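Training component of the fellowship. As part of building independent skills, the fellow (R.M.) carried out the full modelling exercise for a liganded target. The chosen ligand was ribulose-5-phosphate. The inputs are recorded below so that the supervisory panel can assess the work.
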Amino acid sequence: MEKERLKELAAEKAVEEVRSGMILGLGTGSTIYYALLKLGQMVKVGLDIIGIPTSEQTSQIAEEQGIRLSTVMENPVIDLTIDGADEVDPSLNLIKGLGGALVREKIIAHASNRLVIVADESKIVDYLGAKVPLPVEVVQFGWESTQMALNQICQRSVLRQVDDQTFRSDNGNFILDCYFDQISDPKQIEIRINGIPGVVDNGLFVGRADRVIFGAADGIQTQDR
Ligand code: 5RP
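Fellow's submitted model of the complex:
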């Protein structure tokens, strides 16, 4: 089965948990796109939800789909958030943020009573850091110094560029993509990185996902924490 179809199947399975009256966190990325399409269809036939987007990109897509939106400031408690991931380890710890929305995603995940992650099976890893770098959002001021400190923890880091421009998050910050051989103690690395002045947050989500739904060639796989 094509990867896009696997993403769509996982996203549609997650949307089955959505009920009218929910405050729903809306993640970011190409897998969540399918959830937004499905939610849009359901809203048109009467589903009554308020969506809390994790990025400007998601906000725009959700609006196009007719999903009513609000903010985490107005709704500090979220019933359920559906989001994607870049890597998932056997304990359902995650790397997120290749799409650049990790800070808002983590704030919204923290405000949520339940976090459901959707992904295709290519995101499954034995150890975090095996396939993708760990994104770290840093303030622009003094980012070179922040990078030097980060490089004491990871092997190397790269200032994210998109279309020959330095990438800026929705918060106006830079992202340093940090390469590891493997992250064997994600909680410890999350804490150490966030202790560096200039770091806003990093893409390690440890013990946060309640359920991960994988789209796999032989069907949907659901894993609960
Ligand atoms: C954005 C994210 C995304 O959820 C993550 O990158 C997965 O995206 P996709 O579904 O496109 O693979 O963390 O910051």
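The panel noted the following from the submitted structure. The mean pLDDT is 97. The first strand starts at residue 23 and ends at 26.
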